[in-house]
Each structure stands twice: as C-alpha cells, then as structure tokens.
Amino acid sequence: MPRFAFAGRCSTEDLQDPETSRNWQLTRARALIEPAGGEIVAEYFDAGHSRALPWKRRPQAAALLTALRDPHRGFDAVVIGEPQRTFYGNQFGNTFPLFTHFNVPLWVPEIGGPIDPDNEAHDLVMSVFGGMSKGERNRVKIRVRTAMGSQAKIEGRFLGGRPPYGYRLADAGPHPNPAKAADGKRLHRLEPDPQAAPIVVRIFTEYLRGTGLYAIAEGLTRDNIPCPSAHDRARNPHRDGRAWSKNTVRAILTNPRYTGHEVWNKQRKQEILLDIDDVTLGHRTQQTWNTPEQWIWSAKPVHEPLISKTTFTHAQARRHDRRQHHPAERSPRTTPRTYALRGLIRCSLCDRKMQGTFNHGHPHYRCRYPYEYAKSSPLDHPLTVYIREAVILPELDRWIAQAFAPGQLKTTLQTMQRSQRATTTALPGLEAARRTIADCDR
C-alpha cells in the first residue's frame, strides 16, 4: 500500500477557518489516492501563511522539504489537494526538482495522479496553476483597494482602525452588506471627544502663532493635560504616558482627518526582496508612507471638523517652510554595527527602550528621553543616560551561568513555565485579540 504525505496551506486571507480548509483539501487528496490503494500517513499543513511565501519560509512546507532528504522519511509519495493554495507564481518550478531529485512522486488532482517530470503538458499545467494563484491574489488586492478607495472618496465611510486623538467612535447604523448586517456588524463614524478635541484646536492655534513642536509639548505637559497614550491608557499600555512628545504633536499637525474629511491611502504595503541575490526567498512586506498627492480624500466632510481645511493647509505650509530653513532630522536607519542586547535594555527612570550607539569604538546603550518628551515634574531625567555594553555582559553571563547551572536548571525551567502560564492567565482577551488581528489582516 503506497504511503503518502499530505501537503496543504491556508492563510488569513481565506474567508474560512483553517480546519474547514484543511478538511476539504484533505478530502480531495484522499479521493485521488484511495482508488490506487494509497494511505495518508503524514500531514504538512500550513495555516496562517500567505501563498506568496516560498516553501522554505512556510514552517510545514519547509519541514516537508527537509523530510524529502531523509531516506527513512516514512512515506513514499506526496499528495496535494489544491495546487492553487500550495504553489504561487514560479514556486512549482523552484520546488519540484527536489521531488524529482529524491525520487518522491508528487500527486495532484488536476493531473489525475503523479506529475511526470518528462511530460511537458504536466509542467505547463502546473505553471498555469501557479500563474492563476498569483493572478487571483493580485486581483483580490486590486478589488479590495479599489473598493476601499471608492468607499472613502464617494461614501466617506470610516474604514476602521483607531480613531485619531480628538475623536471617538460613534455608531453609524447597520452594515450595508445584508449578510454582515445579519451577523450584527455595524458601521462607525468619528465624533469629537469632549476632552481631547479642544486640545487639538489648541495645538493648531499655537503652532500657527509660531510656537515650536517642543514648546507646545512642554506647555501641554506643564498644564497637566494627558497625552494621547495617557488619555486612552487601556489601548496604550506599551507607551509612555508621562508627557507629550514632539512626535505626538507632529502627528496631530499632519493628520488631515481633523478637517472633517475621511482620508485614506496615507500608507501602503510594499513588497521588498529579502535577498536580491536569491529571489527564490521571496519578499517581506513593509509599510511605506505615500506622498500627500496619493492620499484619497472624501468628496465632502463626513464628520464634524475640529479645524478648517484652510487652517490645516496653513499648518502644512509652515512645516514646509521650516523644513526649507531647518533641515529635517535624519530618519532612523539600519546600522551595520551589532548590539548583543539590542531592544532588551530599558531605562530604569522612564522604562523606555535604550538605543544602541557607538562611542569611542565601543557599543553603548543610551536614553535621550528629554530630547523627545517634554519635561515632566514627576520625572527627574538627565539629558542623556549612557551605559557601556561591556559593563552589562559579564554580569549577565554570570547570572545566566547560575540560573542554568546543572543543580539549578530544573528550578529555572519551572519558574519560566509558571511565568508563561501567569502571562497567559493575565490576558483573558488574548484569543479575542488574535481573532481581531486576523480580521484586520483579511
């Protein structure tokens, strides 16, 4: 009896749950091999991974490729239930040679059995399915983006996300899609937040009078006005809520939604090659800012404005003039230098992550809280706090050696397990949050 490994995939883009997707792909695979006496003895099913990811970057698909190299792999052939879910673009051409090399037949329903590596028709059919898979994904992206653009421009619909500081969400009636309305989904709109809306007006007013970003932040902090992360602490537990920052003031001044218009397409997802010398590794997705000319504005105001469009235009003109006379600060950039504790060191005064920096040829970690945030009376923070990496590493190594010593290893592992369990227990909404994130991905 031939032994088969089943390979399949579904992602959050699929409007069905992973178990349903796995079951129908598995059903198709069994319908193909059972008349030949085949039996599935192993499964390699990737859930939550885009088809655009190459096989080497999907956990289960990569495990299958590794298993092909094992002469004691436990299966004689591989069966796929749906080639459009498994292969994308030219992935078949980059993957099938491995099956041929290790003499493992690959069965596909559309072929009616195993793929013949010497059959041009088989190769053509699989290449077509890869192209169809890529075309399907691209068509979905185009339809979704076009639909969202028209909803923003023509209908002025709120398209989701966190309301900007100064607004809060209000109910806007049932969803226009009957199926979604029956499921209880409703539309939302923005309405002014009684506490935060006047602060937005104050920021624009002071800025147009000539006050700088840092001076505005200092004035708001001095007047004990909660910054956005402190105003909505439940949704911003990861941010510092002690004082206003220049970046926060800048973000408010550049947000066109305060004019009452819905504005969409300020950012886009851009796919960038992981390795220009090996395109088979695929892409990574990166959020990129669009230019103001690419933003899509609603044809008319759709929620109560906090400022006029003229005020917003004047604020942007002043920012442009300041950039002309005062070059903008350099944006963060990647560095070829390595930091052993990158992203792990926090300032004990403000609890912010410290930045890696090289001084006199040695790696340091620094915190420049006052450079970005206004001075806050409860926090006495020096202008810059430095610590040398060479001071931390020996102490850290000694602590790790003690915690994972043979006589202490069991206690350490039990403590780590209890800590993980406590973290999971402390987040009762974790699963709901994950479902919400998956909905946003869709």
TrEMBL record:
InterPro entries for this protein: DNA_bind_recomb_sf, DNA_bind_recombinase_dom, Resolv_N, Resolvase-like_N_sf, SSR_resolvase, Zn_ribbon_recom_dom
Ranges annotated as biased composition (Basic residues): 316-325
Residue ranges occupied by any Recombinase domain in the UniProt entry: 164-325
Listed SMART domains: Resolvase (SM00857)
Single annotated GO MF: DNA binding
Region (Disordered): 312-335
Domain of life: Bacteria
This protein's name: Recombinase family protein
Lineage: Bacteria, Bacillati, Actinomycetota, Actinomycetes, Kitasatosporales
